[in-house]
Write the structure tokens for this entry.
Amino acid sequence: MPDDSPAYRRILLKLSGEALMGEEAYGIDPEVLSNVAAQLVSIHALGVELSIVVGGGNIFRGIDRLGDGYDRASADYMGMLATLMNALALQNAIEAQGVTTRVQSALQIQQIAEPYIRRRAVRHLEKGRVVIFGAGTGNPFFSTDTAAALRAVETGSQVLFKATKVDGVYDKDPKVHPDAVRFQRISYLDVIERDLKVMDLTAVSLCRSNDMPILVFDMTKSDTIRQAVMGRDVGTWIGPAEHPE
């Protein structure tokens, strides 16, 4: 394969809501949003079919609010609405740079988003549109990581990109332990057995059951998403025991 050709035809990117905050304490940093959109547009220009699951932790993270008097289901539904706010912001930023998008929601809010329909989502991808999935799975008690794993499998993506603020998967929290070791490759089973906090374990199990590889990398570094799409050795690969050549 030529060096300038992407390694993947279709990918799903899991983008955290916190990634849109930048240095802000809350909400969306317009400059960060524009930069993220520019990276996604550059991937689209390579001919890669791109879908995105966006979180809502920069606005409302349901599981963190359980001690504030919210019951779990209500808090999770509020978090789903936060993901839709981020999805609309991301849609606006990407379309401002000339790429057509569609937002699909697992909750029925037809004034602002299409309902999630798998065949329609796949058709949008085939037509070169970026598809942004909001509202998680539409069910409480499931994370947006699990939504990302589910949508990746449903849409026939070749890989699930988990874009974070950390440059891969470590054996312990690198922010707390300076001696933490980063894995270059690790199996699904090792992630589950070690209870590593890179993704919700339900998401990892779903990927394992469906042979969906996961690539975890730091999206705050310049051009990292593009490097990942090109098949460069960035971040941590989670998959079967052996990494494909």
Summary: Residues 72-95 form the longest helix (24 residues). Residues 72 and 191 are 26 Å apart (CA to CA).
